[in-house]
């Protein structure tokens, strides 16, 4: 069963080290562009969360529009590449509440990337968000961790927040993932 496959943190780190990052896109995602109005809902200066962000270029794109982008990524290499590829100066500091975690923040302060496991975060550390752009997190999370992930996402969003979620549809008997197949019925049961 594809639900038995478990991808370890070490496997994700190795993907970054080996440059095996076919999931990273050099262009902004067309669905974010298409549904940006749904995410923003006419509001400005929002805090947008990017779970399992990698070096997603949409973080800079939204920050350039006047929003704050906050991401979490287990790969320090991905985080450093994000700042380097956008020529963004940043500072690095430990996250006191989480052993070994680091927070990398642009010197302008509008992009903050936490380098740690997503499950090391909580609203007491990162606050609440007005929106979430999940371009590949739910489908990357191990199926056995989906409920934990959904509970965390729900705890991180404020009232009147919006979440854009991208999944993939395929025959789960032909591909074990990641990306993992997440049926629409499961999305509804996870997020209501």
From TrEMBL:
Subcellular location: Cytoplasm
Major place of residence: cytoplasm
Coiled coil: none
MF annotations from Gene Ontology: thiopurine S-methyltransferase activity
PANTHER family: THIOPURINE S-METHYLTRANSFERASE (PTHR10259:SF11)
Residues that bind S-adenosyl-L-methionine: 12-23, 52, 73, 117-118, 135
Gene Ontology BP, a term: methylation
Enzyme class: transferase
Pfam families hit by this protein: TPMT
Organism domain of life: Eukaryota
Name under which the protein is recorded: thiopurine S-methyltransferase
Catalytic activity from the UniProt record: S-adenosyl-L-methionine + a thiopurine = S-adenosyl-L-homocysteine + a thiopurine S-methylether
E.C. number(s) listed in UniProt: 2.1.1.67
One cellular component (GO) term of this entry: cytoplasm
Family from the record: Belongs to the class I-like SAM-binding methyltransferase superfamily. TPMT family.
The entry's keywords: Cytoplasm, Methyltransferase, S-adenosyl-L-methionine, Transferase
Record-linked InterPro entries: SAM-dependent_MTases_sf, Thiopurine_S-MeTrfase, TPMT
